[in-house]
Amino acid sequence: MTLLAPDPACFIKRRKQLLAWMHRHGGGIAVLGTAPEKTRNRDSHYAYRHDSDFYYLTGFTQPNAWLVLIAGTEDQSILFCEPKHPELEIWNGLRWGPEEAAKHFCFDAAFDSGRLNDELPRLMAGHPRLMTTMSRPSDESFFGMLRGWVKQAGQQVRGARAYPTNWLDISDVLAEMRLIKDEVELATMRKAASISALAHRRAMQAVRPGCHEYELEAEILQVFRKNGAQSVAYESIVAAGPNACILHHRAGHDIMRDGDLVLIDAGCELDGYASDITRTFPANGKFSGPQRALYDIVLAAQQAAIANTSASHHFNAGHEAAVQVLTRGLLDEGLLKGTFEHALETAAYQQFYMHRTGHWLGMDVHDVGSYRTPPLSNEDQPWRMLSEGMVLTIEPGLYVRPTDEVDERFWHIGIRIEDDAIVTANGCELITRDVPVDPDEIEALIRG
Ligand code: GLY
Ligand code: MN
Ligand code: MN
């Protein structure tokens, strides 16, 4: 086994950016921990996944690690991580250890995380301001530890020097930084998106009436891993027929029947970055009349949302455009009654479309960042303008549950079409289109 460190350049740059922000806000010490390891059952663990904020600033993916940034007379970046341990490494794999980590990840210093209780109070002494991701802690127990170190720092300085009496939340600062992706991040996200698109193609090629949801999940996972993705970005949704109307239906044991639609919402995580794709297609390779009618409406809604995604639109413009097309289509097909204006005003579409048209995408599938104009993120603020380098999903859908008011032909049809888009000056770059959305192309792919 060998350990691979990412190119440290972008992580150094982000730490510098955060340190500059800290200086602008009076200086101080920032402490961030990575995510804890989690037990699945007895002595088995879930696959380890680092904390996204921590990774963003360090590039470091091993557990039990901490970052300390000091914005003082001299700036410092310090890592705490697990020490080398030849015996445990035989069981669990190589550890970087502080010495190698400092070298490869370019920290000013690195210590064994077993020394946190000694070093943190010492490092905190002299700094009245402590900064951390208070609204997004990697681990709730982290605050208890921080409080303990602050208390010790107070005891050590005995009133002669400052110690952290002022806590500052840096969750929003990091969210704003994370919202605009740099070229390194965009390159990774394009790769993750292509792998996921390939996986969706494979599922379309593998589907047949009689096949189980879990079989298509297996096809998807095979492509993710075979192409180097470390994980899923979220648990895969594979929904046969009526299950598509359950928005987060996990791939289960249900069978796709002749005439059913299949909805797959699945995306891989590559090098810490998510992708998020949904496609809906006929198990037998041919959309029925009602299925095709609703599919065309959702596709037109997505096209309208895409046309309203650019650096000169606000975040909600895509949703507003999609909702208009969905409403018009639902009226045309008789699923809604009355006038267009009244249906829109009363949000009548919500009976068939109960989620929003998109969300930020990044290291987390529902990535951080305010949807409203900063500095406040409350609902009274106007929607924020999109900017180049933001990444979001565009994912309208329609879900028809059986009711007396709806023609039976449409019952149990659930459709969502979801692509990932990078905002550009004049529009957006769709990075997930290696898998078709056009219904004729989809049918051709299924039939081979
Ligand atoms: N896969 C979760 C979502 O589309 O938001
Ligand atoms: Mn999504
Ligand atoms: Mn999705």
Helices and strands in order:
Blueprint: H1 9-24, E1 28-33, E2 39-41, E3 44-45, H2 52-58, E4 66-71, E5 76-81, H3 86-92, H4 97-105, E6 109-112, H5 116-124, E7 129-132, H6 141-157, E8 166-169, H7 171-179, H8 183-206, H9 213-226, E9 231-232, E10 237-240, E11 261-266, E12 268-270, E13 273-274, E14 277-282, H10 289-307, H11 317-332, H12 340-345, E15 391-394, E16 397-399, E17 414-416, E18 419-423, E19 428-430, H13 439-447
Parallel strand pairs: 1-7, 5-6, 7-8
Antiparallel strand pairs: 1-4, 2-3, 4-5, 9-12, 10-11, 11-14, 12-13, 15-18, 16-17, 18-19
Helix pairs in contact: 5-6, 8-9, 8-13, 10-11
Bound molecules: glycine (GLY) and manganese (II) ion (2 copies).
Describe the structure.
This protein is of the alpha+beta class and 448 residues long. The protein has two domains: 9-178, 3-Layer(aba) Sandwich (Creatine Amidinohydrolase, Chain A, domain 1); 180-447, Creatine Amidinohydrolase, CATH 3.90.230. The protein has helices at residues 9-24, 52-58, 86-92, 97-105, 116-124, 141-157, 171-179, 183-206, 213-226, 289-307, 317-332, 340-345, 439-447, and strands at residues 28-33, 39-41, 44-45, 66-71, 76-81, 109-112, 129-132, 166-169, 231-232, 237-240, 261-266, 268-270, 273-274, 277-282, 391-394, 397-399, 414-416, 419-423, 428-430. The strands form six sheets. A six-stranded mixed beta sheet has the order 6-5-4-1-7-8, with helices on both faces. It has a three-stranded antiparallel beta sheet with strand order 9-12-13. The two termini are 40 Å apart. The model has no long low-confidence stretch (mean pLDDT 97). One manganese (II) ion binds next to loops. One of its GO terms (biological process) is proteolysis.
